[in-house]
Amino acid sequence: MLIEILQQTINGLAIGGVYVLIALGLTTVFGILGIAHFAHGSVSMFGGYLTFFLVTSQGLPVLAAIPIALVAGFVLGLLIEIVAYRPVRHANHINAFIVALGLTMMVEGINLQLFGHEQIVIPTGLSKVFRLGGVTVPELRIYVIIAAIVLVAAMMLFVERTKTGQAIRAVAENRDAAILMGVNVNSIPLIVFGISTSLGVAAGIMVGALFAIAPGIGEGFVVKGFAVLILGGLGSFPGAILGGTVLGITESIAAGFISSAYKDVIAFVVMILVLLIRPQGLLGRSP
Amino acid sequence: MKRTLTLLAWLVAFATLAMLPQLLTIKYYLHLSILALIWVIMAQGQNLIQGYTGYVSIVGAGFMGIGAYSSTLLGIHFHLPTWATIAMAPLVTALFALATGYPSLRVKGHYFAIVTLAFNLIIVIVLVNYKELTNGETGISNIPKPWGGSRDAYFYLVLILAACLTLLAALIARSRVGEILLAIRQNEDLVGSIGIAAWKYKLFAFVTSAMYAGLAGALYAHFQGFINPEIFGVAQSLDAILAVILGGSGTIAGPVIGAFLVVFLPELLRFADSFRLILYGLILVLATIFMPIGIVGICKTLIARLSRKGLRHGA
Predict the structure, then answer these.
(1) ipTM for this model
(2) To the nearest whole angstrom, how far is the Cα of B245 from the nearest Cα of chain A?
């Protein structure tokens, strides 16, 4: 029983890392621009597909393909901001959300067009399995967890310690005041979208390596990402990290002990319960 | 003057639609027209919550599924006549909508959209996995079709229902309730500050829109004779949103036009089969950026401009 719980917790940490990365991108975009970037999941999976393509068709080693995919993600993020969201920046929030829905359809369509209907798994060649007591830990999961921690730490350092990070926080805090202080409000959304999309691509690669990528999977992940935001509190970094980890572990334990078919339902039920009991999220400030 | 003209336009539209079974020689187009009329009901419901109240709900297709499955299952298990199960489907859907609307309406804007979307995903997951009841992904076939499957008869049934529900939507929109819904869309805090319990009205709009969707689902099931969970996925909910946006949200004619567009547009885009999703998304993005007021909105602006010009010439 205890070993089973430990086992599922470790499994949950890996998937939780993926959720945290997706949620960090979403929470930054939401905090700065007030946009629910629904296409984030599909764009992330595009990154996973791209890595798969680079590795299998172009014969690149995985470690070379990943940076290329991350840079491609950054550029894609810039494009999305300029082409899709900038025109509706001053419009009603609902319009931005509907643009996001349209964008999701487009990216899903592009993924289908470029990479086909088949489900894919990124070949990593990491198949070693460690055994600690009765708990088995695949090597790949450990790398995923480490990579997630490193990326989250890097993101935190960037936002807390750099000048640009300060500007991003300033815009999130008070947009008008930030403009008065000389923050360029045209470049900040660009940077935010670039970085968020890169983080999403990293998550997409992890999904492709740990599980599999197939059409439609991105939507599930983006909804989980928003569930994490609701769990942790909107626009809160620590909230996203805590929320993602909690969701990942709850889901694995639920899949192990209750039912794997209904594990997604359990994740959503947790989200809805939090909304009912603590609408501001676990770490959110009460309004 | 303007009022009589609008009424006249509606009558002409209704008469034209009523003659469609005689006019259409290709039966496939009649089939599509029935689907489009079912979507009119769906879109009118979606418009109540999305267009008038300003809450983008993404659970429309899920409620459609609940309507479709409840009508079908009530017929199978209790041997009820089809007309009775179709009439009960919106009531069953309303129960689900009450249960889901209460938590979802605690959040606003994007988060309402996300929570309703999660409900749509839950509905599909349950439909897929609760195999004893729903037969899983295989779906249920041989659902009874009324009037021995006569298309013409079904067309008139759906036409009359769509017309009545459009009228009902217009009545709601013009009533005090409709005015409060519009006020909620414009400034919810202000509505609360003058002592109106906004949540009651939001819940009313949500449940009513779900009942529209439930009825549309039941009509769909008994028309096609086959249902499975995939039909009621998020993609269809997005179609309902698209119908409202394209036609013109917050108008009564908008959803009618939008519904016909979302049913016929994919057929027209069939030549570009694999690009369909991309094109569809592109249309949604472009429509939101360049014509957020929809086709009806654009027509209204044009008519207003023309009549102003006419007046100036007359004077």
Answers:
(1) 0.79
(2) 9
